[in-house]
Amino acid sequence: MKKIITRNEKETVALGLALGKKCHGGEVFALCGDLGAGKTKLSQGLAKGLGVAGRVNSPTFNILKIYRVGNQAKNKKTSQTKKIKCLCHIDAYRLQSEKDLLSLGVEEFFGQPETVTIIEWAEKVKKIWPPRTVVINLKQLKENQREIRIK
Length: 151
Ligand SMILES: Nc1ncnc2c1ncn2[C@@H]1O[C@H](COP(=O)(O)OP(=O)(O)OP(=O)(O)O)[C@@H](O)[C@H]1O
Ligand SMILES: [Mg+2]
Description:
Blueprint: E1 2-6, H1 9-22, E2 28-32, H2 39-50, E3 64-68, H3 72-78, E4 86-91, H4 98-102, E5 115-120, E6 134-142, E7 145-150
Parallel strand pairs: 2-5, 2-6, 4-5
Antiparallel strand pairs: 1-7, 3-4, 6-7
The structure holds adenosine-5'-triphosphate and magnesium ion.
Adenosine-5'-triphosphate is lined by residues 6-9, 11-12, 33, 35-41, 58, 120, 144-146.
């Protein structure tokens, strides 16, 4: 387990960015923590690190959003073949149960080598976390301080 303290939102975004860059595909990130804990900020960094262009917001009302990962340019430079093609961003805040999420077909994305999945309010859908889910707990310590634990 890794414990990181961030002192402002930029540091949280930067942490997400570093995590995103390390992804190989198939990762599922379960972000747990209260309102304003920094889940979306971390997600925005992750998305950027993966190579998602444009803005990533909390999909609270839509529950699920799919972003295309455009990392072709990066591939040419590093001559690495990155196979990640999309980011599946889920916000479970409004869900009553796991069933709601399953009915959207999310399991098709979980663990797919071409997809990285981020679940905000993941504690609400714990029963359907796939094996090897990366659990990230975020906690507000002070106004601008967050404790981020990665398991
Ligand atoms: N160290 C920090 N890391 C992240 N955000 C911080 C930090 N310090 C202050 N903030 C502020 O806290 C808020 C975090 O908001 P964010 O939307 O990321 O939280 P969230 O966990 O997604 O909340 P919600 O469950 O409501 O969607 C932002 O307004 C951000 O500016
Ligand atoms: Mg959020």
